[in-house]
Write a structure and sequence with these properties.
The protein is α+β, with helices and mostly antiparallel strands. It has 7 helices and 5 strands, in the order H-H-H-H-E-E-E-H-E-H-E-H. It has helices spanning 8-13, 15-24, 29-37, 41-60, 101-110, 127-139, 147-153; strands at 64-69, 72-78, 82-90, 115-123, 143-144. The chain has a 5-stranded antiparallel β-sheet, with helices on both faces. It is elongated. It starts with 7 loop residues before the first helix and ends in a 5-residue tail after the last helix.
């Protein structure tokens, strides 16, 4: 398994897709029920493969993620072969919560010296490596976002 198994709730959301997945693998609904009752190891294998299939599809469409904490903000723009990250850290003299965008914008406009803003890049050699990077960041607390914050901060890295 590349990622994690979908929860029961997530599997219920993708029930139609799971039925098609089983069908594409030559497993009827009746066969599936028999395998589950017999605790066939193939049940776990099919659940894991389906979970990876769904998560790959979701991760493939992610372009921006943000990781926010009171003292640290990382905005990622993930392209096909590389990713850019804008890292914002507050100085030791600033105590405001920069995960709040209004507070962050106020600091940028009124006390920019209290922020450290850097741009970093990372080469992502394959779609699999790209998706794994996104999955790992989401597992650490990052959230899928849009281009708005990244685009707002990028000129400040010049």
């Amino acid at each position: 398994m590349k990622y994690r198994r979908l929860t029961l709730e997530e599997l219920e959301i993708f029930e139609k897709e799971f039925i098609l997945f089983l069908s594409a693998n030559g497993i009827t609904g009746e066969d599936w029920e028999k395998k589950k009752q017999a605790q066939d190891p193939m049940v776990n294998l099919m659940l894991d493969e389906f979970s990876d299939f769904i998560l790959d599809g979701v991760l493939q469409n992610v372009e921006y993620i943000d990781h926010r904490s009171p003292a640290f903000l990382a905005c990622f723009n993930i392209k096909e072969n590389f990713g850019e990250a804008i890292i914002v850290q507050r100085s030791s003299t600033a105590f405001e919560d920069i995960s709040d965008i209004k507070v962050l914008m106020d600091l940028i406009q009124n006390r920019p010296q209290e922020l450290q803003i850097n741009l970093a890049t990372k080469v992502l050699g394959s779609q699999e490596e790209r998706n794994k990077f996104i999955f790992d960041e989401l597992s650490k607390g990052a959230m899928i976002s849009n281009a708005e914050l990244f685009d707002l901060l990028k000129p400040l890295t010049q």
